[in-house]
Amino acid sequence: MASQGLILLTIVSLIGLGNTNLTSSCDSMCNNGCTVKCLRTNIRCYLQSKQITIITATDQTSFITHSGNNPPSGFDVDLMKYIGDIYQINFLYQYGQFSQFVPTVQNNTNIISISTQTITLAREQLVNFVQFYTSGTGFIVRSTYHQTVNGLNDLCGKTVAVLASSTQESDVQAQNVKCKVAITIQSVPSISDMVNAVQTSAAEVGLYGEAVLKAIARKSNNQLKVVGQIYDIQPRGILCNKRNMPLCCALVTVFAHPELICLGRRVYQHVYQAL
Question: Average pLDDT over the chain, rounded to whole?
Fold first, then answer.
């Protein structure tokens, strides 16, 4: 079954609620649900009435990166900044490990998460999603590595680094059951740890989203390469709390805004062209 966020996104696109009235009065905060009237007239008001925090990673190259006291940057940040410009709001950022995103959003009604999070049925039981792009999974190895890695079957007998709580971790665990020679699985807390494991030969192969891996390989000074067949192309989404449907509705409506759709396509195409 599709998530409520995805269903809402389809409805909003069909009835054209992306053309939100930015000067409408704030006579209702949509606390009674996602009515058409609410979506048309109160999205700006609702977003401005809350302090919305975004929890995300610091090392998802090209999508979102952050270090020191510098502001975050990347595709995800550009989208959220444009939303802020349209609706005259400021988002606060906080940073955590990938495994923290779902429970943090699940337990905090005014926190959302934007990253390269795959929409899965298991996660949809815990949080709502607003889809904003699709991507597949790829394999990354050292440039000097010459063993065959075309797909999951080729991981048998190898040492593989994956992000803890990721779909790639589940994929490798499922594949391991089928292997005659076991996979040595290293579940690490961050993408940086996964890349470091491959670079230092602590792991032979790393798995993650193709776009992130291509960006990492491009910036590795020819130390890393992406190999094999991209698999499991799935929608990725922004996480929002199931108990805060007005906020989820607001995000759905925001992402149906025609100008944002156009910008998102341009920025995303730019990201891929650079990979």
Answer: 79
